[in-house]
Design a protein that fits this description.
single chain, 4% strand, mainly alpha, 6 helices, 108 residues
Length: 108
């Protein structure tokens, strides 16, 4: 899961020393840190444990975590059990289960 790589993403920028002028120019043109760009991704909850989903929520924020963005690869009952074990308000639960996808995909 992406949150476990946040330290690596942050540290990579400190050690990055591109040898090509084009690469140096690309790095110099970044307006955010690599970690800030990394946090712009979305996380999917399907098949994850409550601990992993909680880590994704802490790293990305509730607005960037969704359920089953490509397909619910696990049995829905098992996945819903993991969701139910999270400390979420009903509004956050609905955001995770449907509202984020509706917003991102532009559907009602």
């Amino acid at each position: 899961m992406a949150p476990t790589f946040s330290q690596r993403a942050s540290g990579a920028a400190m050690h990055f020393n591109p040898s090509q002028e084009r690469d140096r120019a690309a790095v110099a043109s970044l307006t955010k840190s690599p970690l800030d760009y990394f946090k712009m991704f979305y996380a999917d909850t399907t098949g994850q444990t409550p601990i992993t989903i909680t880590a994704a929520l802490q790293f990305f924020g509730i607005d960037r975590v969704m359920m089953a963005t490509d397909f619910p690869w696990t049995y829905p009952a098992k996945h819903m059990t993991a969701i139910d074990q999270l400390s979420l308000s009903e509004a956050q639960r609905q955001q995770l289960l449907r509202a984020n996808a509706q917003r991102v995909l532009g559907i009602k």
